[in-house]
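The material for today's practical consists of a large collection of protein records. Backbone structure tokens are a discrete shorthand for how the chain folds in space. An example says more than a description, so a record of this kind follows:
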Amino acid sequence: MDIKKLMQQAKVMQAKAEKIKGELKKRVYVGSSGAGACTVEVSGSYSVLHIKVDPQLFIPDAQGKVDFDVIEDLLKAALNAAFRKADEDAEASLKGANLPPEIASMI
């Protein structure tokens, strides 16, 4: 195969990969936990955009304590769910683009 043609194909694939990467960064993914008690939104570039925690979780119990361990666990679960959705979407987008693994791994 001609090296110039091969280089041209590589540039086309790289441009396609960059386009997909840009599109993924603009997307928003939502994760929730605790039956909706904690909801987060993250971008395709894994930035946290919004966090919502049900105010009922901050009401002290009979001993006057708020269970921050539960709140932290709910936040972690919601964030992990959103990040998992972002990862799955990125993987599906790359699969659909038919990019070679070497190019896809750069995204």
The longest helix spans residues 68-96.
